[in-house]
Design a protein that fits this description.
The chain is about 55% helix and about 15% strand. It has two helices and two strands, in the order ββαα. The longest helix is centred in the middle third of the chain and has 25 residues, at about 25-50.
Length: about 70
């Protein structure tokens, strides 16, 4: 899907690309994809953990106690 992104570049005095401009919708899509990847990585780490599983209610209770 990245092939659909049509970036515009900002260059410095030497003509080197230093920044990029993309449509907001593309930025939001990219951020969402990165968040999804992070969620999968965190899930994979949790599956590998030797700690016993915790219910969401237990997690919320533990967080509030801190």
């Amino acid at each position: 899907m990245l092939a659909l992104v049509k970036p515009q570049y900002i260059t410095n005095e030497d003509g080197e690309k230093v920044s990029v401009i993309i449509p907001l919708s593309e930025y939001e899509r990219i951020v969402q994809e990165l968040e999804d990847i992070e969620d999968v990585q965190l899930f994979d780490e949790a599956k590998k953990s030797s700690e016993p599983p915790m219910s969401f209610d237990e997690y919320v209770k533990q967080r509030r106690a801190k």
